[in-house]
């Protein structure tokens, strides 16, 4: 879910920039309108308002980002990037070639059983 939230936030920035210059590729209904019928300032204003309000709706997600990323791709982290209580566990996990091979071929959700010894207890 975290990836969907961040992707939508990036899309809002993209749409805002595209609408500001009159690019309507992602807005076929607006593209179908006559140019004189489209108020770019209103279109941009709506997306800008949504983009500015978006972070306040998902304030609790930001602090959890590290935990989400650590759980879905633990082999992509350097030990220094994780909280101290998890560093030794991460070293053990990353040095286990068998787990690494299984993790690379499994999806993050199905590989959660591989990580039973790697307890993610972020207490930041």
Structure description:
With 124 residues, the protein is mainly α. The protein has two domains: 58 residues; 52 residues, no CATH class. Helices cover 56% and strands 0% of the residues. The chain is built from six helices and no strands. The chain starts with a helix and ends in a 19-residue tail after the last helix.
SSE pattern, N- to C-terminal: HHHHHH
User: How many domains comprise the coordinates?
Assistant: 2
Strand content: under 5%
The quaternary organization reads as: single chain
Low-confidence parts: 116-124
Largest sheet: none
Q: Assign a percent range to the helix content.
A: 55-70%
Query: Based on DSSP secondary structure assignment, what is the total number of beta strands?
Result: 0
Inertia-based shape:
elongated
- Measured between the Cα atoms of the first and last residue, the distance is 21 Å
Mean pLDDT reading: 83
SS field, number of helical segments: 6
Radius of gyration of CA atoms, rounded to a whole number = 21 Å
Counting helices, strands and paired strands, the structural category is mainly alpha
SSE layout and pairing:
Layout: H1 2-20, H2 28-31, H3 40-57, H4 65-72, H5 84-95, H6 97-105
Helix pairs in contact: 1-3
Organism: Chionoecetes opilio
Protein name: General transcription factor II-I repeat domain-containing protein 2
